[in-house]
Write a structure and sequence with these properties.
By secondary structure, the chain is of the alpha+beta class. Helices cover 15% and strands 37% of the residues. The protein is built from two helices and seven strands. Strand 6 and strand 7 form a beta hairpin.
Length: 123
């Protein structure tokens, strides 16, 4: 039996450095200024990417059809960060996660903000 939990929290993207190919970064940043997530859809297979790459990683064709996806999503994977980059214990563990936004097929990484690890576990 699968258990589903809902965690309401902000999602901090700025703690990560994204390596996004040219136009994909611009598309994503322009959308974020308006509070939206934008990516591209592959015209061949329909796969939706956020952030947008130059080509479909499944079909190897150039893609450029912009799409808007939801600002909610499903946590596909997560890990709890207990120490900083130097190995020092953190005051409060952080939850780093991979999210599949509604209407999107790729995953994007972020850090769960406003809900500590312990609170998220108890939720
Ligand atoms: Zn494709």
């Amino acid at each position: 039996m699968e258990e589903t939990r809902t965690v309401s929290a902000q999602w901090e993207l700025s703690t990560y450095k994204f390596r996004i190919e040219g136009g994909g970064l611009q598309l994503m940043l322009e959308g974020m200024k308006e509070g939206k997530f934008r990516g591209v859809r592959c015209h061949k297979c329909g796969f939706v990417y956020v952030p947008a790459p130059f080509y479909c990683r499944k079909c190897y064709v150039k893609i450029h059809e912009p799409v808007e996806v939801g600002d909610h999503g499903t946590i596909m994977s997560y890990t709890v960060v207990m120490s900083d980059i130097r190995g020092n214990p953190m005051e409060e563990p952080q939850v780093s996660l991979m999210v599949k936004l509604d209407g999107c097929d790729s995953w994007i990484m972020g850090t769960l903000m406003g809900v500590g690890y312990r609170a998220a576990r108890e939720n």
